[in-house]
Recover the amino acids of this structure.
């Protein structure tokens, strides 16, 4: 299709970019790391969301090529940041079913000179459900390299809690559906409280996603949530804006 060809060309000609959104410590507002988010503006098609082109690349079998380009760019950009900040990168579900993922990831990190202990890979519940044995093996291999694994969009998939028993994670990211309801909906508040308590017991870090107001940030902090992410702290931004952000918030 036209979209597929445009995307392939964009990857080859280095026109798919990566932006960064801050993840902060809710207690003091200091930045702890950034999530890499793919961005593509095609000269003819305009802005195309990664929610469209990532699934397309998965379907057409070139997600490995897309993802390798994005991880390389993100890791290279991260080298200009303070050493103690982490990089969070979204792994697609197809990559969790591909036994080459560990080797490919390590190759990129080695060639960039990036410490694997600074990397977190975000995976979704749907991804770990599809091919559980392979996913578990890849997750364990990655963790042995020092890479941390986050469970993204937590609470929205099927049998979220079972995932925590079957796989080893380092962090849980609470889906923004719960966060955006927290000021008006007591149920969401109780759910978040329960997730935070459970994660304490499991020794997992917690990030609340999609924080858009100061009131939400305060509420989540009061509920014991350690980290936050969302437009209130910063939108996804290019590398130049990221470095300016660090100047003010690190
Ligand atoms: O930032 P935004 O709303 O545009 O992201 C839309 C969706 O695309 C989100 O689900 C996000 O996880 C996904 N996404 C963004 N960047 C990447 C990426 O580099 N790799 C993968 N696999 N997914 C990404
Ligand atoms: O699926 P994942 O959690 O990786 O994707 C994160 C998505 O959420 C990205 O598309 C990102 O741009 C978007 N996002 C980040 N912060 C906010 C926010 O505060 N509000 C909204 N509506 N979207 C956000
Ligand atoms: Mn994510
Ligand atoms: Na998410």
């Amino acid at each position: 299709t036209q979209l597929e060809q445009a995307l392939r060309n964009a990857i080859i000609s280095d026109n798919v970019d990566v932006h960064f959104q801050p993840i902060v410590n809710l207690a003091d507002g200091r930045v702890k790391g950034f999530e890499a988010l793919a961005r593509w503006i095609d000269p003819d098609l305009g802005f195309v969301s990664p929610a469209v082109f990532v699934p397309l690349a998965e379907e057409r079998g070139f997600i490995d090529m897309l993802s390798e380009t994005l991880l390389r760019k993100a890791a290279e950009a991260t080298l200009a940041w303070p050493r103690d900040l982490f990089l969070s990168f979204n792994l697609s579900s197809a990559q969790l079913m591909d036994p080459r993922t560990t080797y490919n990831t390590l190759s990129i990190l080695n060639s960039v000179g990036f410490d694997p202990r600074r990397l977190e890979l975000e995976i979704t519940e749907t991804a770990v459900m599809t091919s559980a044995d392979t996913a578990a093996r890849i997750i364990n291999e990655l963790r042995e390299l020092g890479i941390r694994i986050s469970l993204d969009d937590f609470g929205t998939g099927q049998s979220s809690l079972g995932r925590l028993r079957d796989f080893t994670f380092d962090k849980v990211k609470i889906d923004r559906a719960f966060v955006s309801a927290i000021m008006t909906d007591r149920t969401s508040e109780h759910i978040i409280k329960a997730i935070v308590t459970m994660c304490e017991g499991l020794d997992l870090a917690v990030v609340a996603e999609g924080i858009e107001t100061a009131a939400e940030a305060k509420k989540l902090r009061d509920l014991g949530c350690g980290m936050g992410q969302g437009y209130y702290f910063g939108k996804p931004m290019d590398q130049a804006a990221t470095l300016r952000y660090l100047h003010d918030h690190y």
Summary: The mean pLDDT is 95. The pocket of sodium ion (ligand 4) is lined by residues 152-153, 173, 209 (CB under 6 Å).
